[in-house]
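Before the break, one more example. Copy the sequence into your notebook; we will annotate it together after we see the structure.
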Amino acid sequence: MKTICELKEIKWGTVFLKTANVKVFSLLTLLFILINPPLLSQDLPHEMWHPGMIVLDSEDTLKGQIQYDFEANLLQYSVDERIKTFSSQNVLYFSFHCQFFKRYRYVYSLPYQLKGRMNVPIFFEILSEGKITLMAREYVITESNNRFGNPLYNTGRNFSGREILTYNYFLLTENGDITKFSEKRKDLYPYFGRHEDLLKDYIKENRLKVDRQADLIKIINYYNQINN
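Here is what the structure looks like once it is written out:
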């Protein structure tokens, strides 16, 4: 599991004070804040509405504001103040301009065996497409503010902790097999076949890490390029 984006963190600047009394007061205030950090509210990508397009399994195309949920495999569509909800079984694919990352994202509904059930269409975001297609499914975990068990953090307030946006990665091969990637190099190399040594050199020379999204995209893009 690799952390991609951490939210609700506080950054403090240095304040230059002119008098000793103000310095003492400010230091005490800062100490109190560090012990009792306030929470900043910031929407996560799946909590936001994004302009986008949906293609249904009926091949109908819808354009408007969309909101997605990878964990529930649901997609909401809003137009003219009306909201409709579609499951991944009703959708072929959708694309949208993510208001969080400020870039376009592309999501397909593909059959996959999830949690021991029969193969059913679920959402996969496409990160790199080619002989090997790299896909992802995002989810959110909550990290406790008091993860070190420090009694100074037991302030009696009901802090829920910070939310961390992360991903599971999947590899789709040309024969249609979808495999969840362990984020370990030894499990990635067999996919490269006769180009394995070339990819090993590329990863080493560029100091790439297979558990980092940007680096993993570079690796798969490079493999797909040399296979073209």
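Confidence is low (pLDDT under 50) at residues 1-22, 28-41, 151-158. The radius of gyration is 22 Å. Try to locate both features in your own notes.
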